[in-house]
TrEMBL record, chain B:
GO terms for cellular component: clathrin adaptor complex; cytoplasmic vesicle membrane; Golgi apparatus. Keywords: Cytoplasmic vesicle, Golgi apparatus, Membrane, Protein transport, Transport. This is MHD domain-containing protein. It is found in: Cytoplasmic vesicle membrane; Golgi apparatus. It comes from the Eukaryota. Coiled coil: none annotated. The keyword Transport applies. InterPro entries: Adaptor_comp_med_subunit (IPR050431), AP2_Mu_C_sf (IPR036168), AP_mu_sigma_su (IPR022775), Clathrin_mu (IPR001392), Clathrin_mu_CS (IPR018240), Longin-like_dom_sf (IPR011012), MHD (IPR028565).
Length: 1087, 403
């Protein structure tokens, strides 16, 4: 009902069988006389006067009463427009219910009473400024629903305002208003599109659904508006309300069809084959091969399919079907079958849902037989099904029949023939016919079965069988002389004209096979000619002519007789046909000359071999329409149907979908794969999945949740299938351009898993044990400190000078966390909401403001050398700190390594050798490089936990089996900390707690006066990974960070008394870090 | 009753619908989508009423069907049942509801928790209170749920007794053929909840044997990721009654058929009579008794009347609809219920080719026929101890025995 120029009138009509025969116009009357109908339904025209009085009174309940009655009239479709002036006055009513009802009335009649409607506009304009969002929204709703062209500019203005409203609810309403205004005045299109563009950028789940709906109605052709929002839409999809999901998926299907290449392109031939049942097995093999081939899907295409998949589990049938059609139209063939199960589930739903889903399945089944084969039994018919559902099920059963399953299907069909529902029985017999001609193996069995039906007592069954047999015989007439004879005998008993006609046609066509019977039948038919139906008469003539040609001796006179009878028939078709036939067969009548050309060829004309009919599903031609659309259902193009474009041969530039990197995203990326977390979840509930992930809920940006998914999925896929892994990984890498950093760290991660697998196999068992041990150890502290950040916050509030805690302390800490901090999850992703995002706990948020990890604003480009090419015979390794958290543990700084081979030989197996083990320092290896050819370079990521010191970390790089080089990774102090975001208030509070020993202050004067603070900020951020704190004071700059390992707070403030002189203050629990940082900052600012 | 969202369409479009209605032999046979020259009528049939939506342009028909069903669900939720007279009685509320649920042809608020905050469901007490105090049923503030990430739950819920009840209902769909062998059998299960918990509880429900599930669908509140990885239902429930999950077990696993029917029906005897003899018995019930057993047999048109004797329960035969109903009640293992007797046929009518099929209905309490069991229910996020209860029921769904 979204797109429809909806006039959705909901009509409730009583419909029990007894009033089926009443004329529809009696409805109104019936309602009025029905004793059950409520009092107000009886109100009649005389009462209009007192209604006016009531409306004019100043008592709210009288007004309400009056409005209720008026609404009753409106609801019944009675004219109530003469009350318009009296009603409109009440638009200012304070009583919210009166107001609502007035709105309803206004929307209904404003179009008819344009001038009077204008009186109410100013009220709405006032309401649009109301502080209550509900009132703003409903004012906009009504205002935009008033279909008066005069107010178009006002509505336009209102929509523009509302689109920028604080409240997402109002913005949603604005999105709804756009198509309304568009339908009222098409000229506003350009301006509306601008507003729409803004709304499409909205990140609130509430808004996007409606925005896309507006897009579909106003400018479905402006696909360029979607590019930038594509990835966002995909990631928000699961959280959008169900109706929005349907619209978005439908729109994205069209988008996918226009932007991505056909995933099944390389195997078009197989596609053809799959249509033929005989190649079923081969087809399956092909499909397996195809899976191995790993379809090269555009990463965005993959993203779309992946984010839509969970929606198959939706309770809303419309959502499920829209996902199904998305897969049907855009997914690689090997994946389409995933939707079958969900579609089958829908068959348990309401009758109407069943009907529509079955129609879709029937259309799909003609092309994708294999998909529904496992569910064959779900399509067995019950006697309690409605007739049209039975017919659809039959249709599907016959489409699904294969050599293996045809036995079961035929047995079912046999039972159906005995049912009590005539149209269904007829369809069942036709279905047998279709099975017989589709599957050669069973043709004879079916034919025998059908022939036995000829002796059925039910006329209708016999007739239908005759028609079906006729079609079947055409394919192989030679073998079935007996059947033809038996059918000829039936002419005496069968009365159904269709069947009689079929018999006659058969006799004529194969008269040589039954030379004795055919003329006899013609004789009988000539006798009864006048009393036959038209369709039979036509066939009698055809039979007569054919016999006359093959056996003129016996039948020429009969034929003339029949034609003579037809000449005077009432039906002009018959007369016409008779004249036409006579001139060919008996040309002598026309001219006295010899046989004409036509009559010489008569035998060729009438007895030409005819191709056998190919029984086809009548759902075949529905392919052209989008599955599940209205047009598909009614099989004609509906008003406003958007054609599904064919896949482009060449995909348009995927870069169009790239969005500028949004800095916040990086830090938030959850650092755990599901596997790791779930391994520990049985301890306490605090330590299960919830804790690490609640990070991602912090901000509303759910795109990071999505990353989380992907990682999980990728991790699991690497378990399942190693072949696939590489492809998956690399595609995942490109897929997420906006969150590149996360991805690049993710890659070594799963590589590393692989590596572990390998080592498990190869190495001695003792090593593998220690291997996994170390992983356990390191993963534990890694998750713990994170929790600590969260949970220790309140603690920090009270004891701001808290000493940095060791890991052990942190573990103990967990026990006294109050349950109030149990995270609350979002619906779909299993991500978590911290309590603060639920309205009820907003108070808490203010009491315990949060320190949130923020992303680095600047990622420095300075690289340093780790390994010199001269020392190592050609291998040069450079490193650079990326300032993104390392995937393995948040306490690690990740450094990007660039390997370059300057030497002449290929270097193999570059890996980390011995690692430091003391002092809390740990290293997470880069993925070993199997080989590096001369002149080429490769990238890798290494994670190092510096344990909050700036001591260089020494370890070894190994190349091949024998070469080992000691290296030292030096870290500037600015990289052992990580940016955090906090409020200014909290900053000052924390700073107050870090005085004395923990405070370092330095003064310096700049060499050249600095005019803007921005350049200063940039300088500082290049040197150290600090987060900028929003500032109320223009002369002060404030930054905050945490040390990576112990999460001690680092606060930096910069006070510029004038343009030249600066005071830098660094407060840090770790005095060493503090003093080093200030030296570094001084050095950089002095430059 | 009519309500328009875009420009007004005359009531006469419904004539097309009535045409179809007249043609169809039963209300179920009316196609859900009817195309008329300018409009498309999409209808659903619920509790012997038709709800018709009129569209002018392309729209996914399921979208409309699903919405109409949701509308009816809401009415049922508000007025506890949805009949013609009830809708006429509460037409103002109905109108207000429709107005909130749909804006310009696009669904606005369909969650019952939100709607109930916007428009209070009618009850006698409130009606009286409103007339006295002059308050209205319509809320003037936006329900907080609408804006939050969990739109299905209203905030500030308070109960003195905190309770959470789960009903696990399983329906056995089966077709049994003449000889008593199973043609197809499936289980369709639902978990319906009645949750009355204060605050923002976060529940997680785990099963002893979650592998049984073939296919599932969830209320939007269920976190799908958690289910994928751990097979645990983790959710913040809406307030009140709702369907948490529905599932489907079939195709792969073998479904236990809890009841058997031994039958013989002969309608072709010489003279104008036939014989009927049916015995029922339990089978694979795991020691539970089968209750509320009802047999329905739609007899062929030529049957005039039945003269039957039962040893348990009573039977009725409606000569108009030709429906034979035998209400058996509980099946006693020691004395199997039996019905037998003669059937009088219309003389001269053509003999009936095939026998009808029997629709069987039954319930078994305290048993989930699939063997599914709830392991535990945990609540996080609130401090109180809720009262929890799980109830298992097995019912016959579309259980059909062919004779």
């Amino acid at each position: 009902m979204y797109a429809p120029g909806v006039n959705s009138s909901t009509t409730l009509s009583s419909s029990s069988s007894y009033n089926n025969d009443r004329p529809p116009s009696a409805e109104a009357v019936e309602v009025a006389t029905d004793p059950a109908s409520g009092g107000f339904f009886n109100s009649d025209y005389k009462k209009h006067d007192d209604l006016k009085q009531m409306l004019d009174s100043n008592k709210d309940n009288l007004k309400l009463e009056a409005m209720k009655r008026i609404i009753g009239m409106v609801a019944k479709g009675r004219e109530a427009s003469d009350l318009f002036p009296a009603v409109v006055k009440n638009v200012v009513s304070k009583n919210i219910e009166v107001k609502k009802l007035v709105y309803v009335y206004l929307v209904r009649y404003a179009e008819e009473q344009q001038d009077l409607a204008l009186l109410s506009i100013s009220t709405f304009q006032r309401a649009l400024k109301d502080p209550n969002q509900l009132i703003r929204a409903s004012a906009l709703r009504v205002l935009s629903s008033i279909r008066v062209t005069m107010i178009v500019p006002i509505v336009m203005l209102a929509i523009k305002d509302a689109a920028a409203d604080m409240s997402p609810y109002v913005r949603k309403t604005a999105a709804h208003a756009i198509p309304k205004l568009y339908s009222l005045d098409q000229d506003q299109k350009e301006e509306l599109i601008q507003v729409l563009e803004k709304l499409l950028y909205d990140k609130t789940t509430l808004v996007v659904g409606s925005a896309v709906m507006a897009f579909e109605e106003v400018c479905p052709e402006r696909i360029d508006l979607i590019h930038k929002n594509f990835r966002k839409l995909c990631s928000l999809l699961v959280d959008v309300d169900e109706w929005g999901q349907v619209v978005i998926i439908n729109m994205l299907t069209r988008y996918a069809r226009s932007q991505f290449t056909d995933p099944n392109l390389q195997d078009v031939d197989e596609d053809e084959e799959s249509k033929r049942p005989f190649y079923e097995d081969e087809n399956e093999v092909e499909e397996e091969q195809q899976e191995k081939r790993a379809p090269t899907l555009d990463p965005d295409h993959r993203l779309l399919l992946r984010s839509a998949k969970p929606l198959l589990q939706s309770r809303n049938a419309a959502v499920v079907l829209s996902v199904a059609q998305l897969y049907h139209h855009t997914a690689p063939r090997s994946e389409v079958h995933q939707v079958a199960k969900a579609m089958i589930r829908l068959l348990r739903s309401h009758r109407e849902v069943q009907d529509i889903v079955l129609t879709s399945i029937a259309a799909t089944a003609t092309r994708r037989k294999v998909m529904f084969e496992p569910f064959l039994k779900s399509f067995f018919v019950r006697s309690s099904d409605a007739t049209h559902i039975k017919l659809l099920k039959l249709e599907i059963l016959t489409s699904l029949a294969t050599e293996s399953s045809v036995g079961i299907i035929l047995r079912e069909l046999q039972t159906y023939v005995a049912a009590h529902d005539p149209p269904f029985v007829a369809a069942a017999i036709q279905a047998i016919g279709r099975c017989a001609s589709n599957i050669k193996e069973v043709t004879d069995t079916c034919l025998n079965g059908l022939v036995s039906l000829l002796s059925n007592k039910d006329q209708a069954v016999v007739a239908e069988s005759v028609v079906v047999i006729k079609k079947l015989l055409q394919t192989q007439p030679s073998a079935h002389r007996e059947i033809i004879i038996q059918m000829a005998k039936l002419v005496d008993s069968v009365t159904v004209p269709q069947a009689r006609a079929s018999i006659l046609w058969l006799l004529g066509e194969y008269s040589e096979r039954v030379p004795k019977i055919a003329p006899d039948v013609l004789r009988k038919m000539a006798k009864t000619f006048t009393s036959e139906e038209d369709i039979v008469k036509l066939q009698v003539m055809t039979l007569a002519v054919k016999l006359c040609l093959t056996n003129p001796k016996q039948t020429k006179l009969l034929c003339q007789y029949v034609l003579q009878l037809a000449k005077y028939d009432q039906n002009y078709d018959l007369r016409d046909r008779a004249r036409f036939l006579r001139h060919i067969i008996f040309p002598a009548d026309a001219e006295s000359g010899g046989p004409t050309r036509l009559s010489k060829q008569a035998k060729k004309i009438f007895l030409a071999p005819k191709p056998a009919p190919v029984p086809e599903s009548h759902f075949k031609d529905r392919e052209q329409f989008q599955l599940g659309s209205l047009s598909h259902y009614i099989n004609t193009k509906a008003n406003g149907y958007q054609e599904l474009p064919p896949f482009p041969l060449e995909a348009p530039d995927p870069k169009a979908r790239d969005v500028e990197t949004e800095p916040q995203v990086m830090e938030q990326a959850p650092l755990f794969t599901a596997k790791k977390v779930s391994s520990k979840k049985d301890s306490t509930f605090y330590s299960d999945t919830e804790s690490p992930e609640d990070e991602s809920e912090e901000d509303e940006n759910s795109s990071d949740e999505d990353d989380d998914d992907d990682e999980e999925e990728e991790a699991s896929s690497s378990d399942k299938d190693d072949d696939d892994n590489e492809d998956e990984e690399s595609s995942g890498l490109e897929e997420k351009l906006p969150i590149k950093v996360v991805k690049s760290t993710a890659k070594p991660k799963s590589d590393e898993e692989e590596e572990e697998d390998e080592s498990d196999e190869e190495d001695s068992s003792s090593e593998s044990v220690s291997d996994s041990d170390s992983e356990d150890e390191s993963s534990e502290p890694s998750s713990v400190p994170k929790k600590q950040v969260r949970n220790a916050k309140p603690a920090k509030e009270s004891t701001p000078v808290a000493k940095p805690k060791s890991n052990l302390d942190l573990l103990l800490d967990l026990d006294d966390v109050s349950p109030a901090f149990t995270p609350i999850m979002t619906p779909s992703l299993g991500g978590f909401l911290t309590p603060m995002s639920t309205p009820s706990s907003q108070v808490k948020t203010q009491l315990f403001p949060d320190i949130q990890p923020a992303s680095a604003v600047i990622s420095p480009n300075t690289t340093s050398e780790l390994l010199n090419k001269i020392n190592s015979n050609g291998l040069e390794i450079k490193y650079r700190f990326t300032r993104s958290p390392h995937l393995y543990s948040p306490s690690m700084a990740s450094a990007e390594l660039t390997f370059h081979n300057h030497g002449p030989d290929e270097l193999t197996d570059i890996r980390v050798g011995e690692k430091p083990t003391s002092g809390g320092v740990s290293i997470h290896d880069f993925a070993p490089i199997p080989s590096l050819s001369p002149g080429s370079s490769l990238m890798g990521t290494i994670g190092v936990d510096f344990a909050d010191s700036t001591q260089p970390v020494n370890f070894e790089i190994k190349i091949g089996s024998d070469r080992t080089y000691p290296v030292a990774l030096k870290v500037p102090v600015g990289e052992v900390i990580r940016a955090v975001a906090m409020s200014e208030e909290l900053f000052l509070k924390q700073q107050g707690g870090l005085r004395g020993m923990n405070e370092n202050t330095a003064k310096l004067s700049l060499t050249k006066p600095c005019t803007d603070l921005k350049s200063l900020t940039n300088k500082i951020l290049t040197v150290a990974n600090l987060g900028v704190i929003p500032n109320s004071d223009s002369s002060t700059l404030r930054f905050a960070a945490q040390t990576l390992s112990s999460k001690s707070t680092v606060l930096v403030s910069l006070l510029s008394s004038d343009n030249q002189n600066l005071t830098i203050t660094v407060n840090c629990e770790k005095m060493v870090i503090g003093s080093m940082l200030i030296t570094q900052l001084k050095a950089c600012l002095a430059d | 009753m009519e309500k328009h969202w875009k420009s007004v369409i005359s009531r006469s479009v419904c004539d097309y619908f009535f045409d179809h209605q007249r043609k169809a032999s039963s209300p179920e046979d009316i196609p859900p989508v009817i195309a008329t020259p300018h409009h498309y009528l999409i209808s659903v049939y619920r509790s012997s009423m038709f709800f018709v939506a009129v569209c002018t342009t392309e729209v996914a028909p399921l979208f409309v069907v699903e919405f109409l069903h949701r509308v009816v669900d809401t009415f049922e939720d508000y007025f506890s049942e949805c009949t013609e007279s009830i809708i006429k009685e509460h037409y103002v509320v109905v109108y207000e509801l429709l107005d909130e649920m749909l804006d310009n042809g696009f669904p606005l608020a369909t969650e019952s928790n939100i709607l109930k905050e916007l428009i209070k469901p009618p009850n006698i007490l409130r009606t009286i209170a409103n007339t006295v105090t002059g308050k209205s049923n319509v809320s003037s503030t936006l329900p907080s749920g609408q804006l939050s990430n969990i739109p299905w739950r209203r905030t500030g819920v308070k109960y003195t007794n905190n309770e959470a009840y789960f009903d696990m209902i399983e329906e056995v769909d089966a077709i049994i053929d003449k000889s008593g062998s199973t043609v197809c059998a499936e289980i369709q299960g639902y978990i319906d909840c009645c949750i009355k918990l204060s605050g923002m509880p976060d529940l997680s429900l785990s099963f002893v044997n979650p592998r049984l599930f073939d296919d599932v669908s969830f209320h939007p509140c269920v976190r799908f990721k958690r289910w994928e990885s751990e097979r645990v239902l983790s959710f913040i429930p809406p307030d009140g009654n709702f369907r948490l999950m529905s599932y489907h077990i079939g195709s792969q696993s073998i479904v236990a058929i809890p009841v058997y029917v031994r039958h013989s029906l002969c309608l072709r005897e010489s003279g104008s009579g036939g014989r009927l003899d049916i015995t029922l018995g339990p089978k694979q019930t795991l020691g539970r008794t089968i209750e509320n057993v009802v047999l329905e047999i739609p007899m062929p048109k030529s049957v005039l009347n039945c003269g039957l004797v039962t040893n348990q329960g009573k039977y009725t035969f409606d000569p108009v609809s030709k429906l034979l109903v035998w209400e058996v009640g509980r099946i006693d293992v020691t004395k199997l219920p039996n019905i037998r007797g003669t059937i009088s046929l219309q003389s001269g009518s053509p003999p009936v080719e095939a026998n009808p099929s029997i629709n069987v209905k039954f319930t078994i309490n305290q048993l989930a026929v699939s063997g599914l069991k709830v392991n535990r229910l945990d609540m996080y996020g609130e401090k109180y101890k809720p009262f929890k209860g799980v109830k298992y029921i097995t019912k016959a769904g579309k259980f059909q025995v062919r004779m």
